[in-house]
Amino acid sequence: MSTDTESAAVDATEVTEVIRREPAPRQPRRPAPARPPRTPRRPRSRLPAPAPRTPAPRDGRWWLGAAILTASLLLLSFVAHVAVLSTAQHYRAQTIAYSALREGLAKAETPVGQLVGEEDMTPIGTPVGLLEAPSIGLSEVMLEGSSSEVLRSGIGHRRDSVMPGQAGTAVVLGRQLAYGGPFSQVNRLVPGDEITVTTGQGTNTFRVVSLRRAGDPMPQALGRGEGRLELQTADGLALFPSGVLHVDADLVSKAQQTPSRVMSYPALPPDERAMGQNGAAWFSAFFAFVFFAAAGIGMWWLWRSWGRWHAWLVGVPVLIVLGVTTSDLVMNALPNLL
User: Fold this and answer.
1) How many domains does the chain have?
2) What pTM, to 2 d.p., does this model score?
3) How far is CA 302 from the centre of its chain?
4) What is the pLDDT of residue 117?
5) Residues sharing a CB contact under 8 Å with residue 194, sequence separation 6 or more, in sequence order
């Protein structure tokens, strides 16, 4: 009995040891609880770089920029007027004057002296002849008068002198550059070149004898019944004259009948003489410039208030019109031979 008990105890002990030696089955691992997603960090707010400061109307730089740009536009308008628009005006005026001259010559109504009738002076701006110089390609209707206003339409006959072809010296003035620059090439004339002038008395032929400037000797005095043509224009750089260029041409055809004269050189208004200026025209030019400057400042204000394209759309046409008007008035106030 005791032996059986001991054997059972031994078997139990061995089973226990075997159980201890055998590894216990691994329990499946429980998944770790999922961590809640991290809230993304907001990027640190960075202040934008300060924009470049735009000058305000109270800033002196704003006014300086507006003044420079306005002056530049005025200069461009002046150049455009002298180079393009004045030439178009001259062409139109010459077309009208040529038609009027042809009609006057056909009807024998073209003035041939200082007077029309017995007491009335020949109206300023009346077409009185056609001057041609084939060697330089010049063909221009000649108008009565030599003020800056008249010379916008063509060359002008100085009213105190005789008509071309008559006994005495006929003086004709013409611009060097602006309004077609009809006398821009007279400096290319050389002694011996012929010039013809058709007036109400017929066609008169002249031969160039000299080109002279200030300080050069005067041509030989005319004899009784002889005639001469003197052309005058600005000398030197365009718009920056150094004096007056004179071209003398003697009459080689028969002299025409010379009517009596009632105006002499001392009675000639200063603005009708060579390099003459109309002082009153500067007042009109000044007021036109004031309006142009005000429009320019208004345009730059619109640039800031409305935007670039709105300002250009509204301001540019206004500035062009005012710029051309101002340039035209300035040219009318400058010397008549420019």
Assistant:
1) 1
2) 0.77
3) 24
4) 79
5) 133, 134, 135, 205, 206, 207, 208
- Do the domain assignments include residue 294? no
Nearest Cα residue to 127 out of 100, 165, 159, 88: 100
Please check whether residue 214 lies inside any domain of the structure. Answer: yes
65: in domain: no
pLDDT tens digits, one per residue of 268-287: 999 999 999 988 888 888 88
pLDDT digits (tens, 9 = 90+) for 228-255: 999 999 999 888 899 999 999 999 999 9
Residue 116 within any structural domain of the chain: yes
CA distances from 101 to 105, 205, 223 (A): 6, 19, 31
Q: What would the DSSP string read from start to end of 239-288?
A: TEEEEEEEEEEEE-SPPBP-------GGGS-GGGSTT---TTHHHHHHHH
Q: What is the CA radius of gyration of the chain?
A: 47
CATH at residue 133 = 2.40.260.10
